[in-house]
Amino acid sequence: MKKFLGYIAAAATFSLLAACGSDDHPPEPPKPVSILATAQATPDLSSLVAAVQFASDNNDLVNLLGAAGTLTVFAPTNAAFDKLAVTLTGNKNAKAADILVPDNKALVKAVLQYHVLTSVVKAADIPLGKAISPAAGGIFKIELENSRPTITDGRNRKSIITKTDILASNGVVHLIDTVLLPADKTIVATAGALAGFTSLSDALKFASNDGDLVALLSGTGPFTVFAPTNAAFDALAKELTGSSTATAKDILVPDKKALVRSVLQYHVLAARVLKADIVPNTAINTALAGKSFTIQASAAAVTITDGRNRIANIVDTDVLTSNGVIHVIDKVILPAL
User: Fold this and answer.
1) Is 0.90 surpassed by the pTM of this model?
2) What is the pLDDT of residue 300?
3) Which of 71, 94, 143, 276 is disulfide-compatible with 85, CB 3.0–4.6 A?
């Protein structure tokens, strides 16, 4: 009887343990924490956390990334901040801490704000090739390059998105390998700094009335400029003068000022139009000249047909500036007579 009761007790114990086991559930995954807390828990984002704390005024950036909200943050890694420190200081041994100094506070704050969107944008929702506007203003764009999502910032520098869709309670984080910098040059300043565009700069100055064209394209915008190269201006000079040795300076003469002015105005749109925004085979109205041209796109090339049925190739696109975008063309386009 004792032995039988022992069996009963053992069976009861086993049943109790089995019952307890049947009620067990896999542990729930941890709930997402804020973007700030996520960064604080990620060793490779310690420089970002230090920069946010350094650049905050009365904890404004700290509170932004720590409070409830719907944000997207492109988060540079520690190596990205070290790379920026080398760029800004000129010291190849510089580290992130070397740029967190009082003189740089305004710059660091503007740079950090340039990495924040005020809506949640997961990787699958990124509008490839389109202008993306951060909270602080300006734009950047994201495209697939060699199958990797790559950001072009306002200074036309590249940053690869190395990890996407890190979920937080107040948004989402994407890791990037280079700190993004907002544009610091207008269309005029950018063209002046690009090799091969001195003729465009000279023509803008020459054709301006009291500097109006230069002032316009140095203003707020946004604008789109189809920018002919020096070789394109030299070719136009040969076309207009009939001389095989003519160069751009040969058409920057007083009796051609009105023509040059109208031609330059024909290259300007009163909106920012990136390559991804172009609608092929549709008339595009120029802002200043009041005349149109069309753009054709194929797998081989993107071309412009101007008002005189001449063809120009768009050889480079989406050069970003603080007040618009530049597309490079290999022929000066001409409005209809």
Assistant:
1) no
2) 76
3) 94
